[in-house]
Design goal:
Chain A is mainly alpha-helical. Chain A is 77% helix and 0% strand. Chain B is of the alpha+beta class. In chain B, strand 3 and strand 4 form a beta hairpin. Chain B is elongated, with a radius of gyration of 19 Å. The C terminus of chain B is likely disordered.
Chain lengths: 164, 125
């Protein structure tokens, strides 16, 4: 692996981790799972600037480290499923070419929440969590719009890193 | 306005998601029914069944920690929890069949079960 790539992964993973931490400081609102998804800024940026593979590497390392630093085994199950489903949907949507960063990150936010509900259904052994779906669908959409707008700005404004 | 034209896909996607959420919420709201009792499960296993018409407070002690469930005025709420985020306490009271309070750190779920004559009550409310 080229040193420039290692450095870029390091930068973006560090950034995503700081954003995870920043988000953990925001007090939770009444419903579990309602959150901004700040680390997704780094992932969307990586997806557009570097590519799908790099976004996967950064996202998975971020999830693993965040679980080690701020979470536990149970929170890892939630975050890894959310992150993987969200990135899968974002990659597919980006490939269609019909959506901008905003649409892609909205889909990512909502699918992240759906992934977490799926884990909750499995871990808690109850399918009675349907009441959370509409709330998390709306909150994921709103968070996705905000993250998408900021990501689009970043993708446009952050100067290209010179490699080689 | 230019943004809307250049982001047609995004706008359609957002509208579709919000509509889906609205339809789902409306569907859940219209089919809501009064609950007769609440069931308390810990890690998928039912540990308590409590009727909603008998007031009282019920401690739930698990390996994860300590919660207190309070039943009053036909609804159930979590009054105490020693988990870090206390989301279950902030969830507030539940009374409709299918509603639940979830405490993720302790793997505790409190769900309202169907009442025997719940459907008629809800419709006449």
């Amino acid at each position: 692996m080229k040193a420039s790539k290692v450095a870029r992964y390091g930068l973006l993973v560090a950034l995503a981790l700081v954003l995870s931490y920043a988000e953990s400081l925001i007090p939770p609102v009444g419903v579990p799972g309602v959150k901004l998804g700040l680390p997704n800024l780094a992932v969307v940026f990586a997806l557009y600037r570097l590519g799908a593979v790099d976004a996967w590497v950064i996202s998975l390392i971020r999830v693993g480290l965040a679980a080690l630093l701020f979470g536990n085994g149970v929170s890892l199950a939630y975050s890894i499923t959310g992150a993987a489903l969200s990135l899968l949907v974002m990659c597919l949507l980006k490939r269609t070419g019909k959506f901008s960063e905003t649409g892609v990150s909205v889909a990512g936010g909502v699918s992240h929440n759906i992934g977490q509900i799926l884990v909750a259904v499995i871990l808690l052994g109850t399918t009675r969590l349907a009441w959370y779906l509409p709330v998390l669908c709306v909150s994921g959409t709103v968070a996705g719009i905000l993250i998408g707008i900021v990501s689009a700005l970043l993708v446009k404004r952050v100067p290209e890193l010179k490699s080689k | 306005m230019f943004w809307f034209r250049s982001h047609r896909g995004d706008v359609l996607l957002i509208a579709a998601l919000l509509t889906a959420a609205g339809v789902l919420a409306l569907g859940l709201f219209l089919t809501r029914r009064d609950g007769g009792s609440v069931s308390v499960t810990v890690a998928g296993e039912t540990v308590m069944e409590l009727p909603l018409d008998a007031d009282g407070s019920f401690p739930i002690d698990t390996d994860g920690g300590h919660n207190v469930l309070v039943i009053e005025d036909g609804s159930a709420r979590m009054s105490e929890a020693d988990c870090p985020d206390r989301l279950c306490v902030k969830t507030g009271a539940i009374r409709w069949a299918g509603e639940s309070i979830v405490c993720l750190p302790h793997q505790v779920v409190v769900t309202v079960e169907n009442g025997a004559d719940g459907g008629f009550d809800a419709a006449s409310r």
